Amino acid sequence: RVEVPNAVMDKLTKSLYEAKLIYYSDTFENKVRTFCMNPGGIVSEERYSTGTGKSIAVVNGHSYADEDKRTENTNFALLVSTSFTKPFNQPIEYGRYIAQLGNMLTGGGIMVQRLGDLLLGRRTDENRLKRSTTRPTLKSAVPGDL
User: Which residues pair with 142 in a beta bridge?
Assistant: First the structure.
């Protein structure tokens, strides 16, 4: 999920509560779109059952009608449409594997990375996260390199 200060998205979310933004990447022409926008919301950890007795930590987002529960952030999911080529035919397993790798790097939790660090190709650490202008609402998230 992406989390930004409310001020970044206010112009959109005050007119369209759940704005849908679409972008096509230059290199692969993948369709990238926003989904499940939560103005003043939180990022939450959920567990996805693997069917083997184990679970994978994944993220979701929520917002509240109660003004007392609202936060200073807006969060949303980014969905990327990818067309795999043959012979590959296991997109769900692929996604599950990527999530498991993220869990492995965080000791079983959720990873957070600042956009600036992502663009610079560097890992977010505790010090960089503390200096961030966006305060993550998922306090248990572990700084890292997506």
Answer: 111
